[in-house]
């Protein structure tokens, strides 16, 4: 497992608290993911954000593009931004990518006291009750839910109880405790999705400006999503 980044170039004094993870299929990664990541770092001053591509999504169809190609695209997308890094543990672990397993290993590496924040779009948050051991996730991390255009945040009843049990009253709680809170966040709303990009490719339409140019070139070069 590797964590690529230039974060090591920062002195300890330049970093604040909080490791953020954004898991995803990233099939492909796009500006909706990346803008949310940067917005979140800017707004709350967390020390790093790790993009964690899954090997085998548990709640979606298996992608046609290989895990290594999706990983390549994530790496290409952040090569100029030192605040973001890639964590490939789910890909090296192989098998179905259960988030609870990922959280347990990251928690054991960063220690008990470091805040760990998992960022999810509204769609992923609403699917939480279908995740393995979902009620235990907040033992290991906070959850930040980013409003995603087109997704109604009316929570299904099962999530209402979960939300009320864990709701943070202020974003400061995300840094003052290591885990346990849920925070709803509104960042730059971008109605971009990976499925939109795959559909455009299938129709041989342009995907320019929806994702980093290097990723677009990788898709073109490897004839992906045709
Ligand atoms: P697909 O269209 O194939 O379902 P996706 O665009 O949702 O893919 P994922 O890799 O599944 O991309 O998403 C990873 C995480 O990023 C999820 O928590 C998802 O909700 C969130 N996310 C994806 N796109 C956006 C966006 N435009 N704005 C905010 N969050 C997003």
Automatic annotation (TrEMBL):
Pathway: Cofactor biosynthesis; NAD(+) biosynthesis; deamido-NAD(+) from nicotinate D-ribonucleotide: step 1/1. InterPro entries: Cyt_trans-like, NadD/NMNAT, Rossmann-like_a/b/a_fold. The keyword Membrane does not apply. It holds the Pfam family CTP_transf_like. Signal peptide: none annotated. PANTHER family: NICOTINATE-NUCLEOTIDE ADENYLYLTRANSFERASE-RELATED, PHOSPHOPANTETHEINE ADENYLYLTRANSFERASE. Catalyzes the reversible adenylation of nicotinate mononucleotide (NaMN) to nicotinic acid adenine dinucleotide (NaAD). This is Probable nicotinate-nucleotide adenylyltransferase. It comes from Marinomonas mediterranea (strain ATCC 700492 / JCM 21426 / NBRC 103028 / MMB-1).
């Amino acid at each position: 497992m590797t964590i690529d980044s230039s974060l090591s170039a920062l002195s300890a004094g330049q970093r604040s608290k909080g490791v953020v993870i954004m898991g995803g299929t990233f099939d492909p990664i796009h500006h909706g993911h990346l803008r949310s990541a940067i917005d979140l770092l800017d707004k709350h001053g967390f020390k790093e954000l790790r993009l964690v591509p899954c090997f085998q999504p548990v709640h979606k169809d298996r992608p046609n593009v290989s895990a290594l190609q999706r990983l390549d695209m994530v790496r290409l997308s952040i090569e100029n931004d030192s605040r973001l890094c890639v964590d490939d543990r789910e890909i090296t672990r192989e098998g179905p990518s259960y988030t609870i397993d990922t959280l347990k290993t990251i928690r054991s590496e960063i220690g008990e006291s470091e805040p760990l924040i998992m960022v999810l779009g509204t769609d992923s948050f609403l699917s939480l009750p279908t995740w393995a051991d979902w009620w235990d996730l907040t033992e290991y991390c906070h959850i930040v839910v980013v409003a995603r255009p087109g997704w109604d945040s009316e929570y299904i009843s099962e999530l209402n109880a979960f939300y009320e049990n864990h709701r943070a009253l202020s974003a400061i709680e995300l840094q003052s405790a290591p885990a346990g809170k849920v925070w709803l966040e509104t960042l730059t709303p971008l109605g971009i999705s990976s499925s939109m990009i795959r559909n455009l490719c299938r129709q041989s339409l342009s995907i320019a400006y929806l994702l980093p140019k290097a990723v677009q070139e990788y898709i073109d070069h490897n004839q992906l999503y045709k």
